[in-house]
Amino acid sequence: MELNENRELLENYRKEAEELVSKMTLEEKVSQTLYRAPAVERLGIPAYNWWNEALHGVARAGTATVFPQAICLAAAFDEDFMETVAEAVSTEGRAKFNMQQRHGDRDIYKGLTFWAPNINIFRDPRWGRGQETFGEDPYLTSRLGVRFVKGLQGHDEKYLKAAACAKHFAVHSGPESLRHSFDARVSRQDLYETYLPAFKACVKEGHVEAVMGAYNRTNGAPCCGNRALLLDILRGEWGFRGHVVSDCWAIKDFHEGHGVTETAVESAAMAMNNGCDLNCGDLFANLLTAVRDGRVEEKRLDEALISLFTTRIKLGILKEKEKNPFDEIPYSVVDSEAMRDLSAEAARRGAVLLKNEGGLLPLDKRKYKTVGVIGPNADSRRALVGNYEGTASRYVTVLEGLQDYLDGQCRVLYSQGCAISEGREPGLRTGRERLAEVKEVCALSDIVIACMGLDAELEGEEGDTGNEFPGGDKPNLELPGAQEEVLRVIAESGKPVVLVLLSGSALAVNFAQEHIPAILQGWYCGAQGGRAIAELLFGEANPQGRLPVTFYKSAEELPAFTDYSMENRTYRYMKQDALYPFGYGLSYTDYTYTDAALSSEEIGQDGVEVSVTVENTGDMAGTETVQAYVKVLPKQAVSHVPNAQLKGICKCALKPGEKKKVHIRLPKEAFGLYDTEGRFMLYEGEYHVYVGGQGPDRRSAELTGKTVAKLRAFSRTDQPF
Questions:
Q1: Cα–Cα dist 98/392, whole Å
Q2: What is the pLDDT of residues 149-189, one digit of tens each?
Q3: pTM to 2 decimals?
Q4: CATH number for the domain formed by residue range(s) 591-720
Q5: Are 543 and 354 a contacting pair, CB within 8 Å?
Q6: Which residues are catalytic?
Q7: How much is the mean pLDDT over the chain?
Q8: Residue range 337-547 in CATH 3.30.365.10
Q9: Average pLDDT of 392-398?
Q10: In what order do the strands lie in the sheet with 659-666?
């Protein structure tokens, strides 16, 4: 039994919090609703700063392992591994907390309440913060989100290892520049089918301790004071008992950006009355006036504090208590060799092989005397880490990884080629003055590895950027600056070329798909990413990643960025063929699927089980990502029926010649759809179940030369859930 299953202990913790709150003055209560909660010495309550970050490693608080960005972790399509990484992050978090407590350090980024994961749906590739998410699919995001939460919070019977926070609730994915005033209008169907499932899963399955509201409005009301979201759905429908925190200074937006209130007191009252318990910011200082003026009942303030103190009690950090097992985690685990190895493994698992014409990869270092490495991301630390990052003790860029791996066995020539974007060229440089160097490196090299893409100064959160991309969102999906021109020069050299893309989002690399023989999507692959990329290119590891987002051919295919309807968005609703589809990724070996079957054609209360035999028919050991998709064909007319949707995943490690039978259980809910009123329905009709190493779309078949098995199941009646 773990803490979240121990109802008696949880109630005791809550009663302890209630008793503590009953002894506090109104002024003391209000002070505890701010993220910088001061000490209440007369009650033995130490100061606590609630703000900490752990998106892909402990961030902003000194040295820590910098794991690959969340989108790279998602590309591994591996629930178990996601929990392993999150567990490692929380281990470092506890180790750092223990050290900081010994030295009396209670500053920002020093607590155990981590504001992660970001489980928003990456609905539009232009969104700068999409790199923080687990991709565009509600099912994948749900499964990975739940396991990330469990990894952070741990499985102890009495205490949380750390407190996770699911953010940003809800219907939030850009534009960044409008987030403080924007109203995301969304239908009930899209709300329940796309934007809420991951939050629901993290609450009901993951028992996430906190939920963070978003900056924007959703259907007219600011998310951090949205009664429908925070009270009706989160607490009412889902039974959430943790605490709700505002995004930072989001409550100020109520009157300054959204214009739904006129004063700071009104804004604080609106947030508190509608379910927000903790303010990242300082607006809740106005609650003192709001309570005295009768705008907020003190009973509601007590409810908020009881939730907050319950979290601190569950962490075992409120007062002197019996020792918990996490108090003994030593600082020596931080940035240790084992942690760095895990980071490199995450980068290897998340990389996606997009193209491998003629089997160019893996490379054989014995064949080459000179390797050329060209591109602005080849020797860039910024392109390794993404945003919300920690500080590693060593960074291994792609260039350094190749130099270390080849280690004198052949010469490595390097050219930056160009700056990553316009405006990054120092002095009087034009951005194209290195083309002569590029041509010479190509001429002298037996093979060229081009390293292009983006970095977190080009795409990210509003305020984190300082370049020509306003607000952190991308204006288009092209390689920025002179990168495309440099890539064309490399291609014209006639030498074999491998393109390594480092980015946190999809890029429209149409030229590369047509002219470059091998392409590897490496994402923001963490501080050890260059080591992992080198090992992948030279066959020390076999790519197994799959795309958690669609790579479109152009931004012109996309609806308006401000349109939150899911129509023609993501693989679930798009009508056109992708450049690279969701769920797509190649391997150095080959897998064959046979004997696909369903346990029953009737969709019963327990759903159905799909089974299939997978064989490694190639020459290299590898791990296949078996995917199951469901397409609903209702008998009656139903609006907005999505394309086939991912509903099951199984990772399958196979040696050459080895075969295994894989079983994926599809619960009854895997066949359900939400109607226009937000009701979950199993419709009478036929259901196609697809199973294979990719999605059932036409473009995946075109790229791989393979199709997936199609099976049929039926529901004989309409059944509401």
A1: 19
A2: 999 999 999 999 999 999 999 999 999 999 999 999 999 99
A3: 0.97
A4: 2.60.40.10
A5: no
A6: 247, 459
A7: 96
A8: no
A9: 97
A10: 591-598, 608-616, 659-666
